[in-house]
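Okay, can you check this protein?
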Amino acid sequence: MVYLLIKDLIILGRAVPILLKDQRKTICTAGYSDELGFVRVYPTFYFDDIHVWDKVSIEVTRDSHDARNESWKKLAQSEFKKISSIKNNKKAKETLLESICQDCCTYDLNEKKRSLAIIKPQIEKCYLKEINATEEGKLITMSLMDFFTTKKTQKRKPLLVKSNFSLIPYIGYRCGDNCKTKTPHNQQVLEWGGYQWIQKNPKKINQLWENFRIFDEEWYKYFFIGNLRDQRTSWLIINILRGKKNEDIKKEDGKILYKTGKIKSSGQTTLF
């Protein structure tokens, strides 16, 4: 078995937890390494002390169960070691995203057998899609639910997995001028922070899109997308990487003003 120490992995996304067959709750964690390019590390868990924009090192190996080039299995005894963070370095984040952004369609990524990418989308719509989970599935997930303590409040709250949510955020978009599909891509958003917002604010779910700055023209947006291990042509949005384009914020009577766009209707889905 070949072991590898990744020394420069910048975390770009951590997805909402999912429940595995062995009942563990795991999180998709992925990022970018100057040495290896895009990297997916698994399994990772909520107690791993890592965050988006952290630069970390981790010992990994290949796994015969996942043949995607970007996928690496974390050694059982290995722990993430934080080296630094560019969270508060606006220029470093923008420079990184611009340098690794692909001006291509998921069709091209499929052809090249890629499984992770950064793209700059042309967003057309966003919506919440109702998922009809089976009662059996809900009972299994809820009965196995564990809890974790938040650092800020020291209160214990349930660690929900994706199957606990009946409303799943979707975004319809085109991947730039080179998009090769006849219709927009409609992909699930897996950003864990979005699901935590839904969990904490069930009566303000539609504010999720404002939190993502989806139609705020003063913010740049990049999508960090990845495909499914067993469905290589099915893509998901792991994270929406965003930031303010400039420091000039228009104000009127002390209130911050944002430029927003209109959201197109999408059938019987729930829109904000």
Remarks:
- The chain has two domains: 3-85, 106-131+166-256.
- Residues 134-150, 248-272 have pLDDT under 50 and may be disordered.
- The longest strand covers residues 3-14.
- DSSP finds five helices and 17 strands in the chain.
